[in-house]
Each structure stands twice: as C-alpha cells, then as structure tokens.
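step: validate -> pass
step: tokenize input -> pass
step: predict -> running
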Amino acid sequence: MKHSENNIRLIFGLKLKQIRLDKNLSLSSLAKKASLSVSYLNEIENGKKYPKSNKIASLAEALDISYDKLVSLKLTKSLAPLSDLLESNILEQLPLDHYGIDVHKLLLQISQAPLQLSALVATLIELAKSSEMSQNNFSRAAIRTYKELNDNYFQDLEDSVTKFCRKINFINSPPINYSVLNKILCEEFNYVISEEVIPNETEFNTIRGINIRNGKSNKLLLNNKLSDSQKAFIVGKEIAYNYLSITDRSDIYSDLRLDSFDQLINNLRASYFSTALLIDKEIFRNDIAQFLNKDKFDSNLLLSYLDKYNSSPEMLFQRITNLLSKYFNIDSFFFHRFNSEFNSERFSLLKELRLNIPEELGGYQTAEHYCRRWVSITSIKEVEKLQSKSDQFYTAIAEIQRSVFNDTKNEFISISLAKRSTLLENSNYSVTLGFLVNDEIKNKIAFLNDPGIKTKIVNNTCERCGVKDCYERIAKPLILENKMRLEKLSENLQNIIEKAKS
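step: predict -> pass
step: emit ->
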C-alpha cells in the first residue's frame, strides 16, 4: 500500500530518531554535525516536516549511513509494527482526532514503548486484517458510539434544516415528494438529475446513486428502481452536502465502505439533515405522541405514517430515535435493521443503535446465527408470506412483541416494520425499535399492557444461548458451552491449588 505524505514524514522521523539514539547522539549534537537547527531537527523527528534532499544528505553524512538507507521506509524489527499499523488503515477508521487524541503523539509514544507493546500492536493488526475490523467494524462501532453519546439528536443539524427552509421559503409539510426536492436541488445548487445512466442490471442493484462533480454544475445519477421516498432521501442528502459545505464525502450512494471516519460522520450528518427535512419534527412529534398514547398497539396508524411522510420504514424509525430522548424523555432503547434473501435462513444485521441498555444484540457477527425468536426475524418471514399475493408484493407490515432476554431477564417492547427491498432482488428487510421496560417507560407507552401483545423469551445468537428446548434454534450453543467448559476448568484448577496449599 502506498503511504500518505503524513505517514512518510512520521516514518522518516521515527527512523531518524532511532538511528540517532542507536549512535548515542543527542538532538543538539546531531543538529550541529548536520548544520541544522535543533528546533528544525525536532520537527523532523516528530513527523511534522520532511527535509529536502540536501538536508537528508547532511543527516546521512552526520550519521555515517547511506542516503538510500535513511530515506527507506523500512523500519527496524522493533518499529516495524508501527509501519504496519499505518499501512493497515486502522487509524483512518478510528475517530481519534474527534476525541482530542493527537495521532502523531500516540504513535511517538508507541515507538518509545517496550517490545511487549510492539508485539501487542502487531497482534491487533493481524486481528484487524483477518476480521476486516479496520475496514468495517471499527468504523461502524465508532459511528454507533458517536450517535449514542449525542442521544442520536443533533441540534445544530435541526437548526440548519430550519434555516435552510427559511432561506428558500420552503414549507416542509408532509408529504414531501421526490419531484419537490428535485426542483430545489436543480434550482438552488445548479444540478442536473438523470435516472437513465445507471444500467438496469443486477450488478448495479446496490448502487442507489452517483454524484458527478463537474465544477459549478454537478450531475446526480439515480437508480430508476428506487422508490419515490428513496429518491427524495438521496436528493435531500445531496442538498445537505451542498448547504452544509461538506466536501469530504463519498460520491457513490451504496453500502460500499467509506474511506475514513470523517466521511462516515459527514454521511451521518447528511442523512440526518435529509431525514429532518423530509419529516418535520414539530408535526412528527404530535404523531409520535398520538401513537404512544393508544391503549392498544395500532399497526395501521404506524403504517399510515409511511404514506403521510413519504417515508421508508427505516427513515421513519430513524426519525423516531432522533426525537425520543429530546422530546419524550425515553432514552433506553435499541434500533436495528436486518436483511435476508427470500426463503433464506441467513439474516444480516446491517445497522444498530443502543442507548442505555446492557444487552449486546449480537454486534456485527458474520458467522453466528441471530435468535429466530426476535420480532425482527419473524416479521421478515411474515412479509415473505404476503409476497405470494401479487397485489401485496411491496406491502409493509408492522408487528410487536414483548421480548424478555433469557440471560439478563430485561424486558423490551419491540416494534418491527418489515418490507420487500426495492433494489435487491428476492430480498426483504426489517427495522426494529425495542424499548426497555422500566418505571419510566410505563408512563410513556399506553399500549404497554395490551393483552394482544405476545411475550417471547429471546437471546442474542444461537451460539451463545442457553435456552432449553428451543424449537427455533438453528445452531448449537458452541460458544456458550466452550465458555462454561473453561469456567469449570478454572474452578477445578483453583480447587487443586487450594488443596495442595493445605
């Protein structure tokens, strides 16, 4: 992999410092021998500056090594893990700078640490490479944490939407259709939108749109298979990128990996802006209150909001999670989205949000099997049955369940919306909101004790589940059994040690 200029400066500085120390030279003595100032040499060693060729030649001569050896990016064995760390792209995926951590200082501290830490760094890199943590899970976990720290509500973006609407005299009363936002993007930001360029072929099903940057006049290509609400959402994001002056972004609208945490943050901000533009918080707050105040779970009322706001199930639930903590004082819940191919037993967890709950809902596992008792899974299977009827092929359904986690005994009231995917052939998905049942929530959700709501004992994944006689189980509890076996072994070893002592 080609190193960035920042990494090259850092590697050169680390190498220079290492050679200097190996030759027992102080900073000032090397500066004097190479005819450089101490402050300039210090900046080189800290990776802040890269010297010109004549300065490198002076340093090589002062250190009695060849020019080529000094500029080589190859580090000694003890520092090699640092080079691998930079090359692995892990640091690009971690939001260190967003939490006040100076990456250069961190790497310099690692370079001065004992060999044990270098071994730990090397091990983490190998784990990251084998599990694609550096490219996928790190960034997802970081974004999820970022949203959770902010209660998934961003006042600055809410204010930006309000200011934008005032600026163009736009009243965002529902429903807001694609054609409305299409006109705004083209007139306000000089865009041309085309739905004819992206090929109508299976391999392009995951590509929802492409932004073509072309100076003052940009072009947005949209997949013509998208629903009106999906097109409106993408155009809303494009409005956000332009209005918020966001340039560090991906130009491809798809599930492809983004290049950095900054791009992920900017994608989150644009998505939030678009959703807030399409679903006005003042109007939607009243609808949420109406839904929560029903004595019985009203699936038809919830589904009616999809049409009222020209919204997808995911957009609707995401907007609810934005407003729950701020306006309803509900701050203990989870959100997740599952995808599954038609008649498949594989369910992929693509998105997850957890606020103030202890349950690990499985994370982004790739090999484990999620609990088939979750309403997230059963609603996908239920929507498959509807697809045998042509007139209900793209019908969304709403289901509810009281979910009691077997391990913690914590109870959730879980609401799921399921629907056929618009782009992915023979694929269905569900989005689920689960509210932790506590004293606070009992006063907020009137239908909590609706006798029509079924209760199910659930868990995380089959591999970690100890529920006996589970007919829905699809895999043996191998991880749980191994954990119990190790705990038993540890207990037996301790008994032997105590017996030997006595």
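step: describe -> The chain has three domains: 5-131, 155-278, 324-484.
step: cleanup -> pass
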